[in-house]
Amino acid sequence: MLKKNLSEKQIVYLIKGIVFFWLLTKIWSYKTWITERSYPVIPPVEMLEGVPNFLHQFLFGFSIVCLLTILSFKINRWLVISLFFSEIISCAMDTVRWQPWEYMYLCFLLVIIINFYKPKNIVLIAHLFLVSIYLFSGLHKFSRDFLNTVWLNMFLVNFLGLSIDFIVQYKLFFLGLLIPTIEVLLALLLLFSKYKKMVSYLLIVMHLCILIFIGPIGLQYNSVVWPWNLAMIFILLIVYLNPIKFSYKTVFANSYWLILWFIMPVLSLFGSWYQYFSFNLYSGKGDQMYICLLDNKKEFKPYFESSNSTFCKGKPTVNLQNWALKEIKSAPIPEAEIYGKIAVYLKRKYGNNTIKIILYNPRTRIRKEL
């Protein structure tokens, strides 16, 4: 990026903004990136279980230094490459680090690395990535899981304080389908409409509503995604600062991104691709893991559920998601394979006789002991 034309300045702002919000998120969720915690460190393959603890800490520190340097000084491509590989190695050592915001930032980073001297390419590819994010985030919400868990319980009851009788009387339950409909519609308009900047403003309003809903003045829930929503607002402002110049040649040359962002996420709708790589966000889908402690463990005390008789017959209970959000400020990865590995780890550490692990599906109400 040698000449400071408008597109190149746009990319500089984009990189600096991403780095700033990424830095905030990593600092806030620092326990996700180190091993000094109670929440299990679960690598994707067994051979990485013996990685020394100091390497986790070193990679976290190295990433922080890279982010601060990119933010403070002129952008250097090799430093961006170093940051990318540092994050990949760190994520390879613990599955919980593959958060949707981490995946998004890594994708943006790789797009920037590949097209470092082609800023117009970066803007166009970033535009397509944003379309994918909103499209599949909306599609995943077309389910009764979303209506029950997010729309009914979180929004209507907990956030607005409405009673079930009021909700039934005024038939508000299925009104929740407007949310995914609007999100998918905005994604399609972002792709096909000539008024992309206007659509981006509507998406910014959506993110502001999300921040009101789950932020400090709302439910105060999942605080690690607060800066992510601010990052999305910033990215929308920068990417659509100027009209998008569509080029079939550029799209064809970068068709591998289309496979990753538009083909693979389709498989997630059928359970054949990672949910967080498909931006399955706040859909209410998936199982919840409950840990029943037959022998009271002191390290679990801060994460006990206030009401635990349903799953563990009066024994102390820990909900894995609440534990993760409270201790490491990151949600568990909602994949059956990873839940299974966590169950194996906990039983190996605490013993089969002192711990019982149950997977519960809120929609089907089916319980399965691991």
UniProtKB/TrEMBL annotation:
Keywords: Membrane, Transmembrane, Transmembrane helix. The keyword Translocase does not apply. The chain crosses the membrane at residues 12-34, 54-73, 100-116, 122-139, 146-167, 173-192, 199-219, 225-244, 256-276. This is HTTM domain-containing protein. It comes from Chryseobacterium profundimaris.
